[in-house]
Amino acid sequence: MCESDRINLATALLIERLVREAYADRAPGAITPLQWAILRAISRASGEGCTQGWIARFVGVTAAPVNRALKALERHDAVTLQRDASDGRQVIVGLTRFGQALLKKDPILTISKRLARIEPDKRVEFRHVLEQLFGTSAAIE
Amino acid sequence: MKKILIVDDDSAIRRVLAQILEANGYFVATAASRQDARALLEQDKDFALFILDFWIGSDTGLDVMNDLQRLRPLTPVLFLSGGSEDVALETSTALGEMRGACAFLYKPVPSAILLDAVKRHI
Question: Does residue A111 belong to the interface with chain B, where contact is any CB pair within 8 Å?
């Protein structure tokens, strides 16, 4: 492995650690990263609740893990699952008050706070790099 | 009358959004592509809001946002997306908001939610 490959690998590892450290609570039954992503998705949905299919599309995973995660979140009393009155095949998912309160403790807020401590021009550069990592062609002005 | 530019490659979406907004007192111009949007804005810069589809043909809404904000840097951008097969809505939402979009809504967007977002940012 050449030196630049080693440096890139170390950088990638630090990005992964940054995120893993944010999800510090790994006790059995704790809310998993996918469950947090689902809570965020529901909070962003337009109107009253959303379907499991929409959540799967938002988060970018298949229906089965979303279904399992929603059942776990329902046991946490964080979401409500109700059959759609107009289409019995659909389940409408909503956030409970406890689910809304949980989002105030969203682990990724710790990363957001760490970013806020970086100088503004460095943050702009970092956003530019992130866009490139995600493969978008336009540059931040 | 406040002017809004809608950029979406789906003619049915352009038509429906324009109808909702015009019925609520906005003047609406529409473009089907990045090139059309740029040409339109070069003729008339007086837009109070840009509503951009996040996936416009081979371009992303970020490319279009880049072009439009070069000519009108302070005009807010509201993104709309129905998603794509390759990129999760969560990713496009974060990319749009990281760039400074004022809102990110999802298709099909209820008219009340669209109008509320437009009123808040115009």
Answer: no
ipTM reported for the complex surpasses 0.90: no
Domain housing A71: 28-106
What's the one-letter identity of residue B53? D
Cα nearest neighbour of A62 on chain B = B88
- Three-class DSSP category at A90: coil
- A100 and A115, same domain (yes or no): no
DSSP three-state, residue A29 = coil
The answer to whether residue A48 scores a pLDDT higher than 70 is no
Q: Mean pLDDT score of chain B, rounded to an integer?
A: 94
d(CA A95, CA A76): 11
Residue A140's pLDDT is what? 42
Shortest CB distance from B69 goes to which of A46, A54, A141? A141
Q: A139, B66: Cβ pair inside 8 Å?
A: yes
**Does residue A96 sit in the same domain as residue A140?**
no
Q: Please state whether A83 falls in left (phi above 0), alpha (psi between -120 and 50) or beta.
A: beta
Rounding to the nearest 10 degrees, give the CA dihedral for residues B92, B94, B96, B102. 130
